[in-house]
Amino acid sequence: MTLLAILLMAAVTYTTRIIGYAGLRNRDLSPRALAVMEAAPGCVLISVIAPRFVSNDPADLIALAVTVSAAIRLPMLPTVLIGAGTAALGRHLLG
Fold this sequence. Notes:
Helix 3 (58-73) runs antiparallel to helix 4. This protein has helices at 2-24, 31-49, 58-73, 76-94. The model has no long low-confidence stretch (mean pLDDT 86). By secondary structure, the chain is mostly helical.
């Protein structure tokens, strides 16, 4: 059942990406629309990690601080990888 849920979530995620690409590929977007499209991934990432701001788990708080520090200087993908790696390492070492 869990595998089915994961597969359905992946299908919905990629379907929305394909629909967005197909719907916007031949359009000229305004600078404001481009800015919104570029900010969307960051907003989604913040919504995922925002509950960790009130966490009592030291591993999550350390990972959050490292992720925010990385986000200041690095692009999105390295920031996500550093954040996920720090969270995994912290949870492994700190429990």
